[in-house]
Write a structure and sequence with these properties.
With about 140 residues, the chain is of the alpha/beta class. It has helices spanning about 1-15, 35-40, 45-60, 75-85, 120-140; strands at about 20-25, 30-35, 65-75, 90-95, 115. A hairpin with a 2-residue loop joins strand 1 and strand 2. The longest helix has 17 residues, at about 120-140.
């Protein structure tokens, strides 16, 4: 998760919503990404989406069932859909996303074999998001 948090800090520095992600296979990071929706002018450029694409390319396989995705914020429905289709083995997230996270939806949104773990380095992940959004909310 610390590596995913480092990616989130890159997003913060790039004035992107600070969410970072890494994908691990056989105890090795095979993909890393951070949100780039502003830079690429693309709402689908979430950290998870980019990391899934990169990991699939690395493994030359569309299935990531032997991989763990670490992400600093609970995945949204779009990213969870990608996780479903790739059959990700495990998702570990930091901060909970009350409004858009998958916890608010049916368990069927993830592949039945996907394990999900939340709250890892939760306060560090949440603090980075708070530092990013606080000045924007105070502008008016």
């Amino acid at each position: 998760m610390k590596e995913a948090l480092a990616e989130a800090k890159k997003a913060f520095d790039a004035e992107e919503v600070p969410i970072g992600c890494v994908i691990v296979w056989n105890d090795r990071i095979i993909a890393r990404a951070f949100n780039r929706t502003e830079q690429l002018n693309d709402f689908t450029a979430h950290a998870e989406m980019q990391a899934v694409t990169s990991a699939s390319e690395f493994l030359s396989n569309k299935y990531l069932n032997e991989c763990t995705l670490y992400v600093t914020l609970e995945p949204c429905v779009m990213c969870s859909g990608a996780a479903f289709w790739t059959q990700l083995g495990r998702i570990v997230f930091g901060a909970k996303d009350i409004k858009r996270g998958i916890s608010g939806f049916s368990n069927r949104i993830l592949h039945p074999s996907t394990e999900i773990v939340g709250g890892v380095l939760e306060s560090e992940c949440a603090d980075l998001l708070t530092r990013f959004f606080k000045p924007k909310r105070n502008k008016g």
